[in-house]
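Minutes, project check-in
Item: structure for the 188-residue chain
Input as provided by the requester:
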Amino acid sequence: MSEWSFTLLVNQPLTPEQADAFDHCDAFADGSVSYTLGPENPGDYPHHPDPDKLRELSCDIEAPTLLDAVAQVARDIRLIPGLRAVGVRYGDTVTLAEAAQRCGPELFELARRHGFPEPEASSGGTEFYSWREIAAWLTRAGHVVPDEPRDLLIADRALRLADVLEGADVPPGTLRSLGLPRIQCSGR
């Protein structure tokens, strides 16, 4: 199995109660999913946390595919009352192994070539690169680099659709007509 790193977007910043439930949930006991909790009284601090960052979960999940990894966390996050996944994205900072997952294992050989982007940072022997710089270098070298891996695109669109359908009153026949068989709306 591969380890997949991605950012899962949730419908709201975690409340202290949700953070406590998250911390005590067996599904997250291995530390593969982490969150940032904002202060209870943000006005008391000179620097306010970015509200969008408070809706992000950093995930490093072992699964056969990226789609399986995202689905696993999206399912498990519903164990926390009031939370649900609403999207997913990749970050720009990657290791070579993560970059290879995005564009293919031949990246390890290409990384030895002259002009390959230098690491931006290093920590504990691990080097971190900018995915945008790697993708630009690969494109200049004549390689086809997908804007987004298909699994990431499917997962993000499915989560966004599920979020829009949450509580919506859409007849099942209409959903089938749109090509969405067997999707249940919580409003029905």
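Outcome recorded: The first strand starts at residue 2 and ends at 10.
No further action items on this chain.
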